[in-house]
Amino acid sequence: MTISPYMVFEHPTVMQLAAAIDLAAENRQPVVDDIQLEAMSVSGLSAPQLSALQSSWGQPT
Superkingdom of this entry's organism (predicted)? Predict the structure, then answer.
């Protein structure tokens, strides 16, 4: 059985993780552990909101 750290977070329950491992084994799919996501791409913020957030970093509060 081979799993990647990504799979643990992608399938939050043991049952879902086991099903994903079984499916990958049945289809003889390699385990993908080199997933690269754009920084903040899954934050749910719009481009202007991300820009405002980034511009606020490093500013004194």
Answer: Bacteria
